[in-house]
Design brief:
This protein has about 280 residues and is mainly alpha-helical. The protein has helices at about 15-25, 45, 65-75, 80-90, 95-110, 115-120, 125-155, 160-170, 175-195, 200-210, 215-230, 235-245, 250-260, 270; strands spanning about 1-5, 35, 50-55.
């Protein structure tokens, strides 16, 4: 991590949820994390131009609790927390990503109380962005739970988890994969209560149903994402997985081919689904 000063102009925020969500799903692998510095004794002129920058390659060895402390100390926007989770996932660090995203969910809870005077003072544009960030962090956390569930069982779907479930029953222990799936479902439910039409939540629910071998439901969520956002990478990969599970290997190959043509430079795509 390095501290730096920026003279760049701030980017405008787009209000279109579907367009923003599609951009999230296609995020650039090489973008670093910038955390604006708000603490300390900086002057009002300098406070907007100073930031802590964390480069992508640092996330493979960066302790999650250390990053969480910086994000909390600097009162980082919720979107920055989500970006941090994404960068951990890109480095195949699912557990640290989950630590950061769960902490971000706590921040969301702290700032969404019905009686909060903050919400009433926000203008419409700020309120819309705040809502989008809240849904994004909840959906992203749900997807991170699914990634952790995969790690807990060494990969695989419902058939591979059946033996794990039977083993847990014999030993009297809880099945970590099933618990993580339930936590994912809880996060998707909370996200849907804020915004039913947020595509990232559809992708998450599609992944969850695919994990549970509920193919028809998975198809519905991936197709809905394609209809609303176009052929974004997560929807293409999701539909390819659905077709493969149904035995339509030619159809699955066609979807994978489309994904490769449209996103030739994307690597580690499964880890990036939904972010």
């Amino acid at each position: 991590m390095v501290a730096a000063t920026s003279t760049a102009e701030p980017m405008d925020v787009d209000d279109d949820n579907n367009k923003n969500a599609a951009t999230d799903l296609e995020a650039d692998n090489e973008v670093s994390l910038r955390i604006p510095i708000t603490s300390g004794t900086l002057s009002s002129e300098d406070s907007g131009n100073n930031f802590v920058e964390v480069f992508p390659e640092e996330f493979s060895s960066l302790a999650a609790n250390k990053l969480v402390q910086v994000l909390r100390d600097e009162a980082a926007p919720i979107g920055t927390w989500a970006d941090a989770g994404l960068l951990y996932m890109q480095q195949k660090q699912a557990r640290p990503a989950l630590v950061v995203l769960e902490e971000a969910c706590d921040v969301v809870v702290d700032t969404t109380a019905p009686s909060s005077s903050l919400s009433s003072s926000l203008n419409k544009k700020e309120a819309d962005q705040k809502k989008k960030d809240q849904v994004r962090i909840l959906a992203a956390t749900g997807i991170a739970h699914l990634a952790a569930a995969q790690l807990a069982s060494g990969g695989g779907n419902e058939s591979s988890s059946s033996s794990s479930s039977r083993k847990s029953k014999r030993t009297g222990e809880s099945d970590p994969k099933l618990e993580l799936r339930q936590q994912a479902d809880d996060k998707f439910t909370k996200a849907s209560k804020i915004d039913t039409f947020f595509p990232m939540t559809w992708i998450g629910r599609g992944m969850l149903n695919l994990e549970k071998n509920q193919i028809d439901q998975a198809r519905f969520f991936f197709q809905t994402t394609e209809k609303q956002c176009g052929p974004v990478l997560p929807a293409l990969l999701g539909m390819a997985a659905v077709l493969f599970a149904e035995g339509d290997y030619k159809g699955a190959q066609s979807k994978y081919a489309m994904a490769i043509r449209r996103y030739p430079d994307e690597s580690g795509a499964p880890a990036r689904v939904g972010f």
